[in-house]
## 1
Amino acid sequence: MDERSEQDDPPADGRTDSPPADGVQTGPQLTHQRPPRSWGAAAGLVSMAAGLGAGQLAAGLARDLEPPVVSVGNRVVDAAPAWLKTFAIDTFGTGDKTALIVGTVLVLAAVSVLAGMVALRRSLAGGLAVVAGFGLVGMTAAGLDDNSGGWGWLPSAVAMVAAGASLTLLTRLATRPAAAPGGGPAADRRRFLTGIGALAVSTAVALAAGRALRSRFAAEVERAGIRLRRPVEPLAAPPADPAATIAGLSPLLVPNADFYRIDTSLLLPAVTVETWDLTIDGMVEQPLRFTYDQLWDRELHEYDLTLSCVSNEIGGDLVGNARWVGVRLDELLIEAGIEPDADQIMTHSVDGFTAGFPVEAALDGRDAIVALTMNGEVLPAVHGYPARLIVPGLYGYVSATKWLSRLELTRFDRAQGYWIPRGWAVQAPIKTQSRIDTPRSGSSVPAGATAIAGVAWAPIRGVTKVEVQVGDGPWQQAELGPSLGEAAWRQWWFSWQAEPGTYLVRCRATDGTGTTQPREVTPVAPDGATGWHTIKVKVER
Ligand SMILES: Nc1nc2c(c(=O)[nH]1)N[C@H]1C(S)=C(S)[C@@H](COP(=O)(O)O)O[C@H]1N2
Ligand SMILES: [Mo]
């Protein structure tokens, strides 16, 4: 658009610059010419775009809301006669939907240009009337086939208000002369262009945010359609869970909805597998790349593995045990061929999170996997869909990368994972811990037989013994629940003949190497807490 040539043109319709009838443009300050047509066109287009951006953002609020153009497009398709649909499919092929959207946007654009010219050069009210007309068409179209429980009109209404507000703003900027000093056409022009620029930037942000929000729903829908495949050696069904009979005891396998979560990013990634793959590169002989389907087509393995956060306080609940299916990490790495100098595997997430651990931990025979499922379900979005890493025996912050996108072979003297410069240890094996789940600390129990019960974990050494001490009494051995292997937590319980009084009760576990949890209390930073979980219980008579 060339504004300079037009700026000095007389109004093309031949009218003189009599004061317009519209209230916005009246007033003694209006001494300059009506804004050029190109300004009107720009204002109209930018206002429409701002409306569509706001509508897209509003449609990001819920899964069954549609962006305004999609609503209108869908209703056009619904209403179109069969011959027209056939023609569209014949002409545009599978691009028929795109053609429809492009067509809708072109019509919108043409009318927006007109609306902008009317608003800036004749009457703001006239321009707003066109915007309102569009808004009503969108709201009606959305309302005609609404799956969102009566809220279908919302994105179009938001779009209408945003477009109207933008048009009003641009009209004001274009028709009110800049105040002196420095007034005059150049200052007017600068102000108008600033308004256009600011709206364009906001629109781009709104569109991007709206798309990101909607992709979350796309990922949900996609995830729901994925077919599970059988691991090569499926585990036996888990044994009867003692938690069913001991109230308050943690389950053998923690349901996905109850599994603890740790995330650095506020807006969790919503990954769809068309655009996702897993790369293995860095210090390898042969960089590799796997699509989601290629991972599913490999040998799948099933393991019960306990995951713990380094920030888990003694007695804390940032720990859980789950049944995972995935591809063995060692098989992938051997296929890529690790260069002898590499000593660290740096894992990258699509959200920018990184975690690094020793190459040795991937190759020493432990069951490290790129996990695709969790407790018999496709990996939940919040736990890393489409794929995450689980390295048994290592704290999550150095290994359990969710939304995994890249395994980079490197060296500890070259790269650091996300938490390392923030004061956490480079080497982070999970420390042996045990926790009393019941009774709760500070609670009261009736005198007589009471179950003291909890869980203990020492991946990948295994738990061989848990002991309980009541008051200053002797350490007494608890009974251990069913074993799901060395890398999984173990339930334990102890039958206590409780006499009235107030007691401190503590527990401690011994791992497969014969080492008992130390009494010494250390904080979670930099490499995990130590100490015996101690609770206070009142026994009533
Ligand atoms: N992408 C990504 N992966 C991540 C994290 C994260 O913040 N971002 N947190 C890590 C930490 S500190 C832990 S303890 C585990 C927790 O996994 P969960 O949220 O599935 O329980 O994930 C690890 N993987
Ligand atoms: Mo963590």
## 2
Amino acid sequence: MKSYNIDSNGFYGEFGGRYIPNEMQACVEELADIYQPIINSPQFQQEFHTLLRDYVGRPSPLYLARNLSQRYGCKIYLKREDLNHTGAHKINNALGQILIAQKMGKKRIIAETGAGQHGVAVATVCALMGMKCEIFMGATDIERQEINVKKMRMLGATVRAVTEGNQTLTEACDAAIKEWCEHPHDTYYLIGSAVGPHPYPDIVARLQSIISAEIKEQLAAHEGRDYPDKLVACVGGGSNAVGTIYHYIDDERVEIILAEAAGKGIGSGQTAASLSVGKQGIIHGFKTLTLQDEQGNPMEAYSISAGLDYPGIGPLLAHISSQGRSQVVAITDTEAIEGGFRLTLQEGIIPAIESAHALAALEHLTFRPDEVVVVTISGRGDKDMSTYLQFM
Ligand SMILES: *Cc1c(COP(=O)(O)O)cnc(C)c1O
């Protein structure tokens, strides 16, 4: 059987690894040595799962969407990460990593954020654990994401404005990494998606794998078999998708469909479709597919949804899609908005515009009547109301 697992150097096939400056090696190695023993310890598992249940509200429901099922002529289940505390899957990862930081004896958490969703999740778990929290955010994003900045401050975090370059996510990542290198002993860097230098992609994958662990149990109860025919998820950096597929990666009975953001179209230059049009490159400390111009210079990503607006992709997803294990569907802004309205009107669920990309992917697929399909709804759409309203 083919395996898509990570190797001991943190590579998934040719993607992943660790491409970082020397000053950072010690911090990352300390984490690489200790993350598996911590995550596998009964004490960590017990604390993590108790908080997932009582604080996050897990397990999130697996809901048989009857109206959508009728439309597509098969059984469509929705994995409801939108019902988690703080409204998306990001809290699973933030909670797991802060427990790791505590076990490592760290006193202070730093993180980067673009749209502010990860920043809010981190500020939330820092308030819960009574830990000091500093969020690095581009000055441009601070202006664009006022509510999330206010939430982070209300939760007791310090939001540090980054004024280099374009003053957005990439510069915020660089600033957070620099801060970590300068304070390696007391500080933990809490990454927001299945990206970054090894071991971060594997840490985030293991923490988010709760999503597919629950899907297995819930499908067994609903359908009498613990696997679906198709899994569908949207991809920014890839954490909700990796969580959705984790326990099925080596199970070839399960088709994997990844919905990435085409933005205005994959050939338009205004896109975030790194699986469809990206080339091999290095970004934020790992090798993956990145958006580049004809000369190979890094290009900015564009998508209507801030959470998918990332110029790379997690290494596991780059690997499985290059191996043909997953099917990639690039969804335009317009298709995503239509997908969001469809779910709202047919099921009474307003999804995040990120998640609406996964729903739009259903329009590109064909189904047999006996097929069981699981679509992950990564988050709720409250944060996106002003964007949706522009299309009403
Ligand atoms: C951040 C976010 C995403 C994209 O991140 P992944 O790491 O690719 O999952 C998707 N959906 C929602 C609701 C988000 O907040």
